[in-house]
């Protein structure tokens, strides 16, 4: 069993025997359960173990019954599950995250003096280690599993399993612990006992008569790098766990967790508080480190204990693997250069060759003739180098090295089956792997086996190796069942030997009596012998060199394919263009030779006919290449090859399939060899003349399955050039056969007449002509898709770099009426063309020739409105994938505006709005209203989005008006593509859309423009929805084709006041932006906001005022005042003309002129200014002093410009106006300053 866990989820996989694709039985991992394991909020899986539990049945003693999955979490919980994901136990023994789970199972002691080790599960925490007694755990898990089974069956039975017995040690005097190894119980020798007592207690230390038993733990981390801990047996009493028992109820189908003790069934209300309360966590018994390997700079990463419990391999942060003698606490060996290494162990038992298998004792370490020796091998997987090494320990050499991938994982459990003892383990047979390597690239699990003789010295090793090989050979020879097919599948046996072996076996079988002969074996040999002879014959034909014919001229090829010279030149041009743009090879270039092993695997005999087994495409091509490639290249005799294959028992249909697969896959080579076309023609003619190729009952008015098979292959192929050439050859051969049939039929009727210029008609030739047109269209499209026209210097999105798929006639026929336009739209998106380019190419200017050719080939499918509609949709779909790419949405709107027919434009715009825009716009609105909403865009992208929304609705409104003045278009399809099936095209969907409700769309447009203005000019403290009443708010984001209740009549004065204030802020921001852009001339407005496209914001503000029932003149006057405030008087004079109430504006500008004059006289300290101020009338002086020049955005304006402003004010102020005299005084003052 294999468990993969990540985050809070896991997948349980079980090994099962299954048939592979090639028909062989092999072990495969199948998903048994998958799901989420985390219960507490935020907890993740940190460690996993799969522990097989021994069966208690007498019939299966020593075998595993079921597997328990133990999972440690970052919350501190340890949970136990069945193979089906049912929770059995949940334990919280410490509140720190679980770092590591490790298990030790029972092993028979190798020598009489070795201490027998108990089973246990050890759990490592950052500062503590918990060990659970194996026997207690085994009994508890069995009881819990039985409890779950009974509860699921009846719902009322309950078993009280015993509590878990565990010990908890608090590890002290260590900075960091990352891994541990529980060595087990050890007993010191008297000398070691005295030495340890002296070290701890000094000279006067006393010792007991019997050495104490201790549990040893080794940790790795830092300070010390390796720590050794010894816990005296009996110094800490085992704790009884407060367990959480999970049981399944058939009635409620739920899992109940109890907090403390073993709980029976309770009511739902009694159970809930217990679930919420955390179990009591017992304190740890302090355990100080006895000694360690102090290396302050070295950080340990992993420790792996050997099966004999005497050695351990430790990996560290310096790329070293260190071998520890855990008994003495010493490092005995070090390997360098193994950064990120993973380690494991293999234990190999000596195999005594003289012993008979039937008489052997099943104990793993002993037999009737004496004890077997045991060897330990260290396995190191160096991930950085992708190499797996096997070393003999302690000081032995490297005995094996394998090149594996760099992404593998080495799995070493270090335990076997839990629940065995010294009796049940006697009959134990290995059921688990000692060690295995998981390769995620190939998806395989590999095991490692090391022969015992590799642990011996050189002299003994050679003899042991020879004995090992002799024994293997004896076993093979003594095997009762032998498969003759195994010899034939050998790659090393030459063809002649295989033929001789098979022939000899067949001769021997023929000599035997009929009753004794296995007919199946005889037939098997006969069939394989035929295949071997065929292989030999084909190899011979391929190796024979024949004199090549002179390559056919263009005229010869044209006649062969029955093409006019003009049509042949066109075909050549199309293929040449395709060749330039499609440079990649479609099939890996391999040697055309095929091994005997593969040949025999691919083919099989059935009733004197050869069948081809189900194979992958590459294998199918390899077989076809073996038969036909030399013939297609003109290097082998076509006639002899066809004769040999027909006589061998191949049906012409199989040969045609092999030939077409080869031809269509070798497109690049075929285009480089024009003479291969004539070879294909010859071969196809010969295959067509074979028996049962073309049915004898076939006439010209019916479809032949033979030619239909070939047409189907061409339709499905994505290699369009090869398919087109093969279709031309197929058409030519068909016409040739039809002509001969017709000539025989009518030779008696028409005698002596000139029939050379005639072409006999048949249904098949008409289908060929249709297919030739479709393949030619497909070739032109494929060439266009792989062409690179634009040379862009700007940043390219990753979405535009994704490769376009290859086309086939079948794909286009299944793509619906819009499939061709959709394909070209994807290419336009990839190239980043401007819509203008498409329009220019449509009108046959000197643009892209391939695009023009596509337009000529598809006048209906690529009609200008249809193509723009698909481009518009493609861009908005790609924008939806990455909303930060605002340029895609902008380009989509550009294509939408290029659609001429208003009906199509209206439908596409409405579909865009409903599918992609309205939800995001709603989120953006509520976000700006300070309500939490996720839009998924940054500020710049949001600004562009809102601008595009405004443009989209404006286009929709214009299209709705224009659609009354024109008719909906009639959508045509090219004759060759009338039979297309598939989804409805975008344009057809667009024409089916309902008409919008104009006032509702206009109402939505106003909101979009307001939102855009807020983002574009970074207006603060504006809540867009506050500018509308309740009716207006409710109408937003509704279906634009529906009738909604909209605001009518007089608006609330408070809302009108807010609207006017908003429009004034917009106008101020517009003028400020205009002034900033004029100052920073090096950065144009279009570069800052490419989506603006010359928007006239002052006009837009006036239009908004009209929609929002605000006085337009107020907005216009404010605009003029702002222009003069920024000192842009030349623009102010133009805007002045648009204002209706010029008297009020003149009064406002008079104050502005006064502020300028006050700044010039009072704040620019000059002697002349002071003297001039003294000569002014007192009322004017007082008025000027009251002016606040800080309200001006630009006070430093030349006095002559201010004089011009005052004269304009005088023009529009009547003489009876209250401020007329003040304006006169100002005029005189300005004239005085000017002098």
From TrEMBL:
Keywords of the record: Cytoplasm, GTPase activation
Residue ranges occupied by any Rab3-GAP regulatory subunit N-terminal domain in the UniProt entry: 3-411
Pfam family, one: RAB3GAP2_C
Residue ranges of domain Rab3GAP regulatory subunit C-terminal in the record: 655-846, 849-1214
Entry's localization field: Cytoplasm
Superkingdom of origin: Eukaryota
GO CC, alphabetical: cytoplasm
InterPro entries: Rab3GAP2 (IPR026059), RAB3GAP2_C (IPR029257), RAB3GAP_N (IPR032839)
A single GO molecular function term of this UniProt record: GTPase activator activity
Family the entry assigns: Belongs to the Rab3-GAP regulatory subunit family.
Protein name: RAB3 GTPase activating non-catalytic protein subunit 2
Source species: Falco tinnunculus
